[in-house]
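Weekly structure sync, notes
Attendees: PL (lead), two postdocs, one rotation student
Agenda item 3: pending single-chain targets
PL asked that the sequence for the first pending target be pasted directly into the notes so everyone works from the same version. It is reproduced below exactly as submitted, 296 residues in total.
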Amino acid sequence: MNIGFMKYHPLTQFIFFLSVLLVTMLIMHPVFLAISLAAGSAYILYSGGVRAFLKNLVMMFFISLTIIIINSLVSHGGITIITYLPDGNALTLESVIFGFAAALLMSGILSWFYSLNKILTSDRIIYLFGRFSPKLALLISMTLNFISKFKNQLKSVRAAQYSVGRDMKNGKPITRIKNGIRIFSAMIQWSLENSVDTADSMKSRGYGLKKRTCFTLFRMTSKDIVMLAITLFSDICVIIAFVTKILDYSYYPYFEISGVSTANIAVYAVFALSCLLPLIIDISEDRKWKYIQSKI
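Predicted structure, written out during the meeting:
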C-alpha cells in the first residue's frame, strides 16, 4: 500500500536519504552514529517487520565484529595501551573505540540503504535522474533492483538443479564444487542476458531521446515542503555545531568528546527528529487508516 513516507515526492525522499547518509558517513561523532543506526533500525522494524529486522541485525553484527577486530589488530594509534599483541604491536583502547565507531557507521549505512532500496523504486529513480542523465538513471535503477532479482533467479536455478540431482548439497565435495560452478555460470549468463534485454527494451521505447515526453503522477505537496524544511534545518544545525566546535570529538591520540550542554543536546534532538521523520509519518498514516477503517 502506497501510504506514509512511500507516497512522498521522490525528490523529498532522495534529499532525506542523502542528508542522513552524508551526516552518517562524514561526521563520525559517536552520538550521531548511534542515533542514525537506531533510527534506521527502528524504521526497518516497523516497515519491514521482525524478520527483516533480525536478518539485518545478524548481518550488521558480523560485519561490525569483523571491523572491530581488523581495526584493533591493524591500527596501533592511541596512548592508552591495553596489552601487547604477539607480534609486539600495542593494542590500544583508542583503536578499539574507533573500531566500534566504524562499525556503527557501516551498520547505519546498511540500515538506511535497506530502506532506500525499498522506497526509491525504479520509476522514482528514473524520474529523478532521467532528464539529466538517462543512462545514469537506468544504471542506478538496474543496480538497485539487481540484488532482489538475482536472489529470486538463484532460487529458481537451484531448484531446477536440485530436481535433477545437481545441487551443491548432492554428491562428493568435488561434485558439489562442480555443481556450484555450474550454477554460478548460469547466473552470470542470466545477468548478462537480463542487462542486454533491459537495454534493448528501453532503447526500443525511445528512452533517453531529447524530444521524448513522459507521464508522471508525482506532485510536490505541502507535506513535502515541510519535510524538506525540517531536513535542511537539521543539516544547517549540524554544520553550524561542528564549525563552532559545539560537538567536538577526537579518537586519536586519545578519545575525547564534548561534554553535555544545552546546545549539543538541542542538536542531537534536531538530528534525531530528522532521522525519525519517515517512522513518524508511517505511524501517523497507519493510525489514520485504522481510524477510518473503524468508522466503516
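Discussion points:
- Residues 17 and 113 are 8 Å apart (CA to CA).
- The mean pLDDT is 82.
Action: rotation student to compare against the earlier draft before next sync.
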